[in-house]
Design brief:
The chain has 17 helices and 16 strands. Strands 1-2-3-5-4-8-9-12-13-14 form a ten-stranded mixed β-sheet, with helices on both faces. It has a two-stranded antiparallel ribbon with strand order 6-7. The N terminus is likely disordered. The longest helix has 20 residues. It has 580 residues and is an alpha/beta fold. Helix content is 34%, strand content 13%. α2 runs parallel beside α12 and α8 crosses α9.
Length: 580
């Protein structure tokens, strides 16, 4: 039976679910709210189909009072577009996946893992064509800090057309932001401000989502737990979460009642930390400080993406000059300063290919965003007192805090990616003329010297999976956000030392963001991750149900898409390099 967890706000009525109250029962799950998605709506694309996903963001009929159906459609559009390359020729719907309508029902709920104060969202999608002959539950966690639909492009995209039910969690992060004050516009962001350190519990969030999905399937479809195949899959932070779930399950200390046994795991470009490896926070704080300057090094002068029009962007030279002026970097000129920054990153493990792709993270200011948000989570800081003087706040184009909009929080829920800046919420640097650099230096000091932060990071380490659990691990060697050498390579070695059944696919010409590949200059350089994720899930399914052997380790060398007179050639299956 699914127990009741009372919440102060309705489960299907963004703005956000409320933080836990004294009446909440830790470890229990709210009675799910059911919604039906048939006809002009469906589970996989909210009725948009591939053409609708390529179109503009769906607008609500009344901007001041969007309905849940409208918010859901926007959330589905946002999360497909944030993860997948939906552009013509990108391969979706042709080389891999299907956007054919999948009618069915959704079950929304909220839960708290034992010891947590803040709930996480749960969602089960149950297709009308659920395969009762080979009942399957795909369980997943949102990538990054996205909302509960954050893994729909991966887990839903593979599982729903196959007739599997799909269980999701936002893993205690998500887009349930709320504005705390009208005057300064300060914004509460769950991942950063819940006080629970959600990353420490990401594995348990996944297991609780699996327990929720299993319970709903038993009630709605009469599926006995022992007859259910449970496959965990995730991308980026979501992939780290499913690997954490595998380790927590093996240790048997997770405390999640009713958690099913996992039958297989596919982890794509995971942000995962094991003992002896550098965690992402270390990498992000160093990259936030040095990479904008390092990209001005002569080593990158041959790269048209880094030298648009054949010139070095002024921002890179300015980053070097600022570091040098404050005594943080030597060198007599930009080239010397940039070379020193580049050498420091290379000495810490960065490959040249990953640094080139890291320019995307620099361009979108992801390093600062990641480092500030994670620092707040690790120090369990409230929204009004983030580390180093950072703050999230609503700001308009002129930098002022606008009056609250009636649908402000609802549109954050549907449209945001989980961690500001974005959607009208800014990440404010510490005050002062040199506040940006001082903030980055303070974050770097936290990463290197703060005992509490080091302890919080240690709490995120993955444990080894059961020796008999099949695990397929995939990572792009050009990943410029979650470097392969710090995450998947370290995890694979660690898991194998503990007897794991693991296959590792190292993907050349793959970086972290499929969604960027709609840009021709990137489409001809990089291959998308999602086709490989689908291939790995297919291989795992064949292993579990058809007796096929678990795949071998591989280093896959794809063929980049060609430039034609009409633009970029469409992606072909043979370009992926999957044929043995």
């Amino acid at each position: 039976m699914i127990a009741t967890l009372p919440l102060a706000l309705g489960l299907l009525a963004p703005p956000p679910i409320a933080a836990g109250t004294e009446a909440d029962a830790p470890g229990r799950i709210a009675v799910p709210t059911e919604s039906v998605h048939r006809g002009e709506d469906d589970l996989l694309s909210a009725g948009l189909g591939l053409a609708g996903l390529r179109g503009p963001l769906p607008a609500p009929a009344d901007p001041n009072a969007p309905s849940f159906a409208e918010l859901r459609r926007r959330a589905v559009w946002t999360n497909w577009r944030g993860i997948a390359d939906v552009s013509p020729g990108g391969g979706l719907g042709e080389v891999y996946g299907s956007l054919a309508p999948v009618p069915g029902r959704e079950f929304h709920a909220a839960a708290r893992v034992p010891g947590a104060r803040h709930p996480h969202r749960l969602l089960l999608q149950l297709p009308d064509a659920f395969d009762r002959e080979r009942p399957c539950l795909v369980v997943t966690a949102a990538s990054g800090s996205r909302g509960v639909y954050g893994a729909i492009a991966l887990a839903g995209g593979w599982g729903l057309p196959r007739g599997c039910a799909v269980a999701y969690t936002d893993k205690g992060a998500g887009t349930d932001w709320r504005r705390l004050g009208d005057e300064d516009g300060t914004v509460f962001v769950p991942h950063a401000h819940s006080g629970d350190h959600p990353e420490a519990d990401w594995g348990r969030h996944v297991l609780q989502a699996a327990a929720f999905g299993q319970a709903v399937l038993q009630r709605e479809a009469g599926i006995a737990p022992e007859d259910l195949t449970v496959i965990a899959v995730g991308l980026s932070n979501g992939a780290g979460a499913v690997l954490r779930a595998a380790g927590d399950e093996a240790a048997g200390e997770h405390g999640i009642a009713g958690a099913p046994k996992l039958d297989g795991v596919v982890a794509v470009s995971p942000n995962v930390h094991v003992e002896g490896a550098r965690p992402l926070f270390d990498i992000a704080t160093q990259a936030a400080l040095l990479m904008p300057c390092a990209l001005a090094a002569p080593a990158f002068d041959d790269d048209p993406l880094l030298r648009p029009g054949g010139t070095r962007p002024a921002a890179h030279a300015a980053a070097c000059a600022t570091l040098a002026a404050l005594g943080e970097l030597g060198g007599a000129d930009t080239e010397a300063q940039a070379t020193l920054a580049w050498q420091a990153l290379a000495a810490s493990g960065w490959t040249e290919a990953a640094l080139r792709a890291g320019s995307l993270s620099v361009g979108f200011d992801l390093w600062r965003a990641v480092a500030a948000g994670y620092a707040s989570a690790y120090t369990r800081s409230p929204a009004e007192a983030m580390p180093a003087g950072y703050r999230y706040a609503v700001r308009d184009a002129g930098g002022a805090a606008p009056a609250p909009h009636p649908a402000e929080a609802a549109l954050w829920w549907s449209d945001a990616s989980g961690i500001p800046p974005g959607n009208g919420v800014a990440l404010l640097d510490p005050p002062g003329e040199d506040g940006r650099l001082r903030g980055l230096l303070a974050l770097l000091a936290l990463a290197r010297t703060d005992a509490g932060v080091r302890e919080a990071i240690a709490a995120t380490r993955a444990r080894p999976p059961r020796p008999e659990l099949p695990v397929l691990l995939l990572h792009g060697l050009d990943d410029g956000l979650v470097p392969e050498w710090s995450s998947s390579a370290a995890y694979a070695a660690y898991a194998r030392r503990h007897g794991a059944r693991l296959a590792y696919w190292r993907l050349r010409r793959a970086q972290h963001f499929d969604a960027f590949l709609g840009q021709p200059a990137l489409a001809t350089r990089y291959l998308p991750l999602l086709p490989y994720a689908h291939a790995a899930l297919d291989a795992l399914w064949a292993h579990l149900h058809e007796g096929a052997p678990l795949p071998q380790d591989r280093e896959i060398r794809p063929t980049p898409r060609a430039t034609t007179a009409d633009g970029v050639a469409p992606l072909r299956r043979e370009d992926l390099g999957l044929a043995e």
